[in-house]
Amino acid sequence: MYAAGRTERSQLEAEFLSLIEVPEHVPYPHAWGRLGLATHAQGWFLLTYFVDFREDQLPKPVDTGVCVAKKCARGHVFNSVRVNLG
């Protein structure tokens, strides 16, 4: 994944941190950071491991939603940022 600009840095960092929290449901993130671009623009990347799913091995979206909902319901701390759903 690639994004350019200041706000996109925060977006990719948040995506990286959220992927770490549910590793059994998503491709595990390997790294994120700044691209060394020759222009003045800031570019950012997010690299995850490749998962070659077969059709009979696809994760169930409901299971991922339940996992995230349980973490939020317990007031789970996502890397020192407390999740508050209202």
How does this structure look, described?
- The strands form two sheets. The protein has a three-stranded antiparallel beta sheet, covered by helices on one side. A two-stranded antiparallel sheet has the order 4-5.
- The protein has 86 residues and is an alpha+beta fold.
- It is flat.
- A hairpin with a 7-residue loop joins strand 2 and strand 3.
- The C terminus is likely disordered.
Low-confidence stretches: 79-86
Separation of the first and last Cα atoms: 30 Å
Question: Which class of secondary structure composition applies to the elements?
Answer: alpha+beta
Question: Order of strands across the biggest sheet?
Answer: 1-3-2
Strand content: 15-25%
Backbone CA Rg: 15 Å
- Fraction in helix: 25-40%
Shape designation: flat
Series of H and E elements:
EHEEHEE
The total number of structural domains is 1
Please describe the biggest sheet, giving its number of strands, its sense, and whether it closes into a barrel: 3 strands, antiparallel
The number of helical runs is 2
Mean pLDDT equals 75
Overall strand count: 5
